[in-house]
Design goal:
The protein is α/β, with parallel strands linked by helices. The protein has a single domain, classed as 3-Layer(aba) Sandwich (Rossmann fold). The protein is built from 8 helices and 11 strands. The strands form 2 sheets. Strands 3, 6, 7, 8, 9, 10 and 11 form a 7-stranded mixed sheet that branches. It has a 4-stranded antiparallel sheet with strand order 2-1-4-5, with helices on one face. Strand 1 and strand 2 form a beta hairpin. Helix 5 crosses helix 6 and helix 6 packs parallel to helix 7. It starts with 5 loop residues before the first strand and ends with a strand. Bound molecules: adenosine-5'-diphosphate (ADP) and magnesium ion.
């Protein structure tokens, strides 16, 4: 078997200290295979987003380790981690996290700016991503003027602009009506199926989880026993 693209090795994550310490993750191990689609499900507060942030190298575990293609992330400097994350991962969040007064194109090309790509190349790649999401005509609009579905499509364009190997989506349809949500689901699933982008979706929507290859159920900071099943 090939090396997993991502592994969590007995990760814990505690917030606060002393009397206010809270153990959000209590020892989770998980392998993600290149090209698969994985749903992380569980009740609100169970630790799903915390786990996603660890896998996505947005946060470091209190103990345990995350491995990217077999390489431990714990020994990497913050700068190396930031570069790796920006080059390898795309992100889609429930709250979109677009800069409201910046243009759609500037929002979409932000990862390229971070990567030090020159303006002309940024523009070319940003427009190509917007075209794929059928948003090219909105490139010059301020992000705040988009509808919810358009905002999430812009966020997906931004997630794609660096040609990531993995897309993380945290409740990507949580702020959308069901028809718009389904469009966004279809886009993410197509990226997985057609381009082989590994897809990790945090969701409490069972219908969405059913559409992915596999689900991991998080309960009170642990993988629920017997609940990691093939879809
Ligand atoms: P989920 O995504 O499953 O709803 P989270 O991973 O966001 O759950 O949170 C898990 C638990 O950790 C919750 O009880 C939450 O209140 C707590 N938590 C999350 N982030 C923080 C933080 N930065 N500081 C303190 N507690 C936190
Ligand atoms: Mg969450």
């Amino acid at each position: 078997m090939s090396v997993p693209i991502l592994s969590a090795r007995n990760v814990t994550r505690s917030y606060g200290q002393g009397a206010t310490r809270f153990d959000a993750l209590k020892g989770v191990s998980l392998d993600v295979r290149e090209g698969e689609s994985l749903a992380v499900v569980g009740k609100s507060g169970s630790g799903k987003s915390t786990l996603m942030h660890l896998l996505a190298l947005l946060d470091r575990p209190t103990s345990g380790d995350v491995e990217l293609s077999g390489h431990s992330a714990s020994r990497l400097s913050a700068g190396k981690l930031n570069r790796l994350r920006n080059e390898t991962f795309g992100f889609v969040f429930q709250q979109f996290f677009l800069t409201p007064n910046a243009t759609v194109l500037d929002n979409v090309t932000l990862p390229l700016r971070i990567a030090g790509i020159r303006p002309a190349e940024r523009r070319r790649r940003g427009m190509a991503a917007l075209e794929q999401l059928e948003l090219a005509d909105k490139a010059g609009n301020r992000a705040t003027n988009l509808s919810g579905g358009q905002k999430q499509r812009a966020a997906i364009a931004r997630a794609l602009v660096n040609e990531p190997g993995v897309i993380f989506a945290d409740e990507p349809t949580g702020n959308l009506d069901s028809a718009t949500g389904e469009t966004v689901e279809n886009i993410l699933l197509d990226l997985n199926r057609d381009r082989g982008i590994t897809l990790i979706v945090v969701t409490h929507d069972d219908d969405l989880a059913d559409r992915l290859d596999r689900r991991v159920h998080i309960r009170d900071g642990l993988v629920a026993q017997g609940a990691e099943v093939a879809a």
